[in-house]
UniProtKB/TrEMBL annotation, chain A:
Its EC number is 1.18.1.-. It comes from the Bacteria. The keyword tRNA-binding does not apply. It comes from Mesorhizobium prunaredense. This is Rhodocoxin reductase. Keywords: FAD, Flavoprotein, Oxidoreductase. InterPro entries: FAD-oxidoreductase/Apoptosis (IPR050446), FAD/NAD-bd_sf (IPR036188), FAD/NAD-binding_dom (IPR023753), FAD/NAD-linked_Rdtase_dimer_sf (IPR016156), Reductase_C (IPR028202).
From TrEMBL, chain B:
GO terms for biological process: P450-containing electron transport chain. Residues 2-105 form the 2Fe-2S ferredoxin-type domain. InterPro entries: 2Fe-2S_ferredoxin-like_sf (IPR036010), 2Fe-2S_ferredoxin-type (IPR001041), Adrenodoxin-like (IPR001055), Adrenodoxin_Fe-S_BS (IPR018298), Beta-grasp_dom_sf (IPR012675). GO terms for molecular function: 2 iron, 2 sulfur cluster binding; electron transfer activity; metal ion binding. Pfam families: Fer2. Its cofactor is [2Fe-2S] cluster. Keywords: 2Fe-2S, Iron, Iron-sulfur, Metal-binding. This is 2Fe-2S ferredoxin. Belongs to the adrenodoxin/putidaredoxin family.
Amino acid sequence: MPHDVDHPATAIPGNESSIVIVGAGQAGLSTAEKLRANGFVGSLTLIGDEADAPYQRPPLSKAYLLGELERGRLKLKAEDWYAKNRIALRLGTRVASIDRGRRRVCLADGGMFAYDRLVLATGSTARKLPQAISRGLTGILTIRTLADIDTLRPALKRRGKLLVIGGGYIGLEIAAVARGLGMTVDVVEAADRPLARVASAETARAVEDLHRSRGVTFHLGKAVDELLGTDHVAGAKLDDGTIIAADVVVAGIGGMPQTALAAEAGLVVDNGMAVDAYGRTDDPFIWAAGDCANFSLPGGGLRMESVGNAIDSADLVARNIMGAREPYKPKPWFWSDQFDLKLQIAGLSRPGDTVVVRHGAGPGRSHWYYRQGQFVAVDGLNAPRDYLIGKRLLAASASPDPAQVADPVLALEALASSK
Amino acid sequence: MPKIKFLLADGAELALEAENGRTLMETALENSVPGIIAECNGSAACATCHVVLPEEIMVALGPISEHENDMLDFAEAPRESGSRLSCQIRVSDALDNVSVRIPAA
């Protein structure tokens, strides 16, 4: 009974308590940090299956891949931070199962940790191509971890031909970097436009135009029948018979929440771990945060794969474990860097929303989305001022007059005071 | 190793030794300096690492990019003459003994 005030799971964990966090990405790390910031003094263990201490994931497909950001600068915390904050960091450690009855996590290497509260921050994993398409060939990569990028970088340095399967953010960011390095780049996307599931048609069109102008070739409304080659990939055959040559293939076909551990433990899994508005699973001792958590909110389920959601949901879960009892109020926002475009998005637009385009004084532009007359999202395309004003208005549930938004002469400042 | 003092929004102070070459935002994040959220990990996309520096060192830090300039105009805390995004500042000896204020949002 999650909301039974007498349940031992609702007591605030004290100095005898042990909290275990599974997953050492942004959400897991932020949960640990915020538990300490909110006064948790007991034992705190952060378990990650990767070899590297928590690091920034977003630059992997952007500045780090380009070589503009050194590896050491990806780390989120200094090495001594963990000891200073009494956080036991267990890297390269895979959790095999959760024993909910005895409140223990069991490790693949045979060890175990007892918990009073468990936080699952297992993140998401890159979806892999079916075997029928990839045929066991080498040179086919997915992008999620530092290790993935370390595999991709040498292939990009050799130049040659890159085939990106999937026109989502990861695929397009990799395409932009590869074009910048002088590779030939083809993008195959099953929908009739890139970013089909994650951006409006207007924004997607602008991004597509940019990529085309920089020499990226799109194959839209097409699917890969099979990849070609004997040992290493040499190309792809599309469903319309087109043959594309390739030296390396990146599959950017979406992320999947890592729910195997939760499912095996009998927790409710529904597009991620089902959690209530407070971040708690159906086991009152177990919480979830980040990419893997599907929050049950008044507007429906909400699962987001973004660093903003990782930080905010981790903060929420840490505060609620420490007794705050606050429901999640998501503030969705995203960004992407492609060529010289900085795309910044606040709010969640949907197909069918009315789009108002604003061309301001600068070279950029912004797309403002309205649903039933209410302002719901903004995309800034090299338009940081528009984006930040829109984001602020969204936070205040304010709705600027669409005619004013579309008026290029009207100063942005005038919109800031919209009700 | 420049010594940098962070003046927090609640009036507290936090003195740190910073490493040359890293950004001021990375230094703050690694040390859990309250008020530096840095949601975008330093790509100047979120303006949640806004700091205010003494005006006399602004020149030594070099020019502000147009993008950063635009972001600062509408950061959560009002812009001041010493406002910068800490992710766009590389730590150098120019920051030794400098007080970095985190504005109240």
